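Lab notebook page, bench 4
Experiment: in silico fold of construct C2
Operator: M.H.
Input chain length: 387 residues
Purpose: comparison with the prior construct
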Amino acid sequence: MRDLLERRVNVFLSVWNKLRSSLDTNGEIKLPKGYCDAELSLDSRLEVLLPRRQGLGLCSTALASYLIGLHNDLVHSVNRHTKEDDRYLVSPSEVADLHLISYEVERDLIPLILSNCQYSMEKGGETLQDFDLERIQQQVISKFLQGKPLITLMGIPTLVHRHDRNYEQLFSDVRNKLEQSALPSSVMSMITGELQSYSDVCDALSLTEITLGFLAMAGENADMLLTEYIEQVLQMGDQTNPHVLQALRRCQLRHSMALWQLLCAHKSEQLLRLGRDPFADVSPDYKEELTPELAKLLHTFLVHSRLEIFLQELHEMIILKLRRVQAVEEFKPTWSLKESLLPYLDDKESELAPELEDTFPDEILLSHAAATWKAAAVFKRREHRES
């Protein structure tokens, strides 16, 4: 398996390096500037091999798209020559080896050409080669090209990172399968108190997301303990950090979505504490800094707010709504943050909505969303230090 993987990686690198200039100028998928400038090697980042719709994963997606185009051009030409129609189509996800134009020069083409070559002797002993080009063409078409399908460019399989999945659809599916409710404040405090390291928070969040995926498909008794579900139903007890299982011991399956919200925000708080940007993939349009006047207004709100709920709800909206590729078209940065967050809270019937409507500053805009959350997270950390 290792040798097969190594061969295929080397084939990818070789093909990319030979075609990268063509991809830059003629590819169906336009790659970001600079992606085609340098050759790839075994020292390149792994992401170039993993087909995605953004980032370095575009390299393999664009290469697959380009090769599909070359394949289809050949099939079109053959079909015109043989007067066949173009109705034989397969999608990229259905492609098998038998659908592809495939040959090896030494094994397939050279013997075919030599079998259609006549040798003759001229005066002086010189050997002449006479190739039957028409017959060679017929055999190449019938053996390698004829009967191949066109491959559609729509539906090239791509990887979706877990943080890029459609959580809104996932949550809707979970709600349809089992009742969901909020986590008690005491349980939230216990979980965040016990999951102090970034790695533990990531492990707990990953476990929660796996659980949500299964619940969305199969459902379960909402009163079952989360740890019981993980250990007995999913059979993942041996693969799970015991400290994480201990921290989640008071959660039921009805708390799964609330737990995801808590852990997701807690992970970003840990990133902020480590000096990293929890919203690295959010548009800069939502990262405008707060002016001193706005910061003072926000501080007044935070002093009297239900801080933990505010942090979680604003964080969830940023992650689910503002991280989208086309977010700026749906959520204008010049809109009021309060007026943008309120409909989201109303849809969820969140208890934060009345408080936000009455006391949150109108002057803070959606463009300040990331800075507002970070300021609230820093305020929370300072409060904990002083308490």
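Observations: The mean pLDDT is 89. The first helix runs from residue 2 to 26.
Next step: discuss at group meeting.
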